[in-house]
Specification:
The structure holds 2 protein chains of 2 kinds. Chain A is an all-alpha fold. Chain A has a domain of 96 residues. By secondary structure, chain B is mainly α. Chain B folds into 2 domains: 99 residues, no CATH class; 73 residues. In chain B, α1 packs across α4, α2 packs across α4 and α6 runs antiparallel to α7. The mean pLDDT of chain B is 88. Classes of the chains: A mainly alpha, B mainly alpha. At the A-B interface, α1, α2, α3, α4 and α5 of A face α1, α3, α4, α5 and α6 of B.
């Protein structure tokens, strides 16, 4: 039964995954952490970090990870298929009727509203993760250092994550 | 042909970290420049369209290219090729992580990594805001969407439906005047 619910949940997440990985995190947090209580808030943020550092889309990576955590290999397979199934079918449909879709105005009307809303979703993901991960002043300092290093000094996000791990060991281990 | 498609997208999936836009130049190089499966124009068209659908850009793009070159079976092969590497990499990491999650050093590191994730999302949000452009109607929608999720606790999917509907009925003139 949980397998079935898991599949449906990721089918739903996939169907609304507009605007890339970070927007999906807001859906993931809502479904997997808040509604179903399948994983802890800390684990959710850990999974988001690992998904960002590994090859492949964040949406797919995080689904695979959550699936594995809940029911190992088959859970991972099911969640991965679930999250890409609806996008796959829609893209296939559009590919078949590409010439018609290319000029379909209705889609661009809908997207006029969806695109800025996605920024709200990303903002919500950011807030949600900050609320979970800002445990004390040290974590806030780490976040500021990381933001400055990617924004000001153009350090790659993956390096920044690795660096923040080292900062974590220093800040929390030594002080 | 199917095997070639699988291999090409397997390679793309295995070596592109950061997803979405980081993958596009790599896909373009493989599919347009090297393999000649699509013309540059077709490729850009396909990005425009797949970008308007839900789902990761990379897998949508794989589906489109696969269909264009070898039909439905090609689409299936390409998307499987694109997700296979990350699937097994994540399985491996998840298995390792589960056994090291209680390790003291790992826990310290992740106490540092978690706030970094928030910072990175904020960074990409700032970049996105710059690229979308600060028009008052867009800003209004973004902030309203944020408020609906954070304050009214609405499901993000529901928020997408709301503003998709708003766009469909009330923002037509904006598209046409462009």
């Amino acid at each position: 039964m949980i397998i079935f619910k898991l599949f449906l949940t990721f089918l739903r997440i996939g169907a609304f995954s507009f605007g890339g990985g970070y927007a999906v995190l807001s859906l993931l947090q809502k479904e997997v952490v808040e509604s179903a209580n399948w994983i802890s808030p800390e684990d959710y943020v850990n999974i988001a970090a690992i998904s960002e550092m590994t090859p492949g889309p964040i949406a797919v990576n995080s689904s695979t990870f959550v699936g594995f955590k809940l029911s190992s290999f088959w859970g991972a397979a099911l969640c991965t298929i679930g999250v890409i199934l609806i996008p796959f079918l829609l893209t296939l449909l559009v590919s078949v009727y590409f010439q018609k879709f290319k000029h379909l105005k209705q889609i661009s009307w809908v997207l006029k509203g969806v695109r800025p809303a996605v920024l709200g979703l990303i903002g919500a993901a950011c807030f949600g993760i900050a609320r979970i991960s800002f445990e004390d002043y040290k974590s806030v300092i780490i976040a500021i250092i990381v933001f400055a290093s990617v924004y000001r000094f153009k350090i790659s996000p993956i390096l920044a994550i690795l660096g923040s791990g080292i900062l974590g060991i220093i800040f929390y281990g030594l002080f | 042909m199917l095997f070639k498609l699988f291999l090409t997208f397997f390679k793309i999936g295995a070596f592109t970290i950061g997803g979405g836009y980081a993958m596009l130049p790599v896909i373009q190089k493989e599919v347009v420049d090297k393999k000649n499966w699509l013309t540059t124009e077709e490729f850009l068209d396909s990005i425009a369209v797949t970008n308007s659908l839900p789902g990761p850009l990379a897998t949508n793009c794989a589906t489109f290219v696969g269909y264009k070159t070898a039909g439905v079976l090609g689409a299936l092969t390409s998307i499987l090729g694109a997700i296979t590497p990350s699937f097994f990499i994540i399985l491996l990491i998840a298995a390792i992580f589960t056994s090291f999650a209680d390790n003291y050093i790992v826990q310290l590191a992740f106490s540092g990594i978690r706030p970094a994730v928030a910072a990175l999302i904020l960074f990409s949000l700032v970049k996105l805001v710059k690229s979308v452009g600060i028009k008052w109607i867009n800003t209004f929608i973004s902030i309203t969407a944020l408020g609906l999720i954070l304050i009214l606790n609405l499901h993000p999917a529901f928020v997408i439906i709301i503003f998709g509907t708003v766009g469909f009925f009330f923002m037509r003139s904006e598209v046409e005047s462009k």
